[in-house]
Design brief:
Blueprint (H helix, E strand, L loop, with lengths): L1 H13 L4 H30 L1 H39 L2
Length: 90
């Protein structure tokens, strides 16, 4: 959830004139991930157990969080400037 909150903030900053579009895309992706997780979770938990599934989720969350945060720190300002330049042409 921390990543979705951060991405919502970044989308509103990047797309200041079309912030609602960015929020809508973020919510759409979040709902797809939630639906997929709900469908997949029960059989996987039944197969490998709660302990291992929680460990796997923690590792995936840690790795993806580090990657997303470092990517946004590295490329975020440039992406924001590029988006602003593109939107100013509209």
């Amino acid at each position: 959830m921390l990543i979705f909150g951060m991405s919502t903030t970044m989308l509103t900053e990047f797309m200041s004139r079309k912030a609602s579009t960015g929020i809508a895309v973020n919510n759409f992706i979040r709902n797809i991930v939630a639906c997929t997780g709900g469908v997949v979770a029960a059989p996987v938990i039944h197969a490998i157990g709660n302990g291992w599934i929680c460990t796997i989720i923690a590792i995936v969350a840690l790795i993806s969080g580090i990657v997303v945060i470092s990517t946004m720190k590295r490329f975020g300002p440039r992406w924001g400037q590029e988006m602003e330049a593109k939107l100013s042409k509209l």
